[in-house]
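Worked example 2:
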Amino acid sequence: MSVDLTRRDLLLASAAATARGYAPTRLTVPIHRVMNARARCTPAQYRRFWGSIWPEAVRTFAGGGILLETTDETGDIKTTAADRPILVGVRGGVLNLVLTDHIPMKWDVGQGLAGVTTIYYGYHVSMIAIENAHGNQVPYLSVNTCVHEILHALLGDIFVTHPKWYDSADREFRTDAFATGLWLFHNGELTRRLAAEYLARLSTTPVE
């Protein structure tokens, strides 16, 4: 499902929500955090992620009425001769947040990505490269990496395979617009509705 959201739309929706002064309906999203045991991150990178980036992501979603219910597991990322990543520790029926030092080459394609979100053999995965991840920086342009990638799942982008380049650019802007709405305006009404639709599909996705 594609939703066109301009900056004006987001600002108007935020102002309307503030004027109504309602308490948002809460939605809980199951997040299974999988830490790659082979990740080569520095102590400073771990401190930055766990002390700043992840707590900010939790607050950003909570401000829009979305609670992240987390479980944790130590996993692994192996590769085949064809560089295909093999993820150990992921689970079905949840959004797996795989934490590592860098995105595998098969998915990164030399771009130095901070994150990627995809369906891996039926498992829903948002992978975060801790060394490249960052917090909220510039509205609509550079938002919290964890928020951005989780939103790619919650907004349904995870179900889109092989998008055109212009579709990808549109979805990137849309995701950052939703993230900005959560971050600055605590506007999560539409996000919660789309996330509920995502969770319904997540619960029925078969794993291989």
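Residues 1-5, 15-22 have pLDDT under 50 and may be disordered. The chain has one domain: 25-202.
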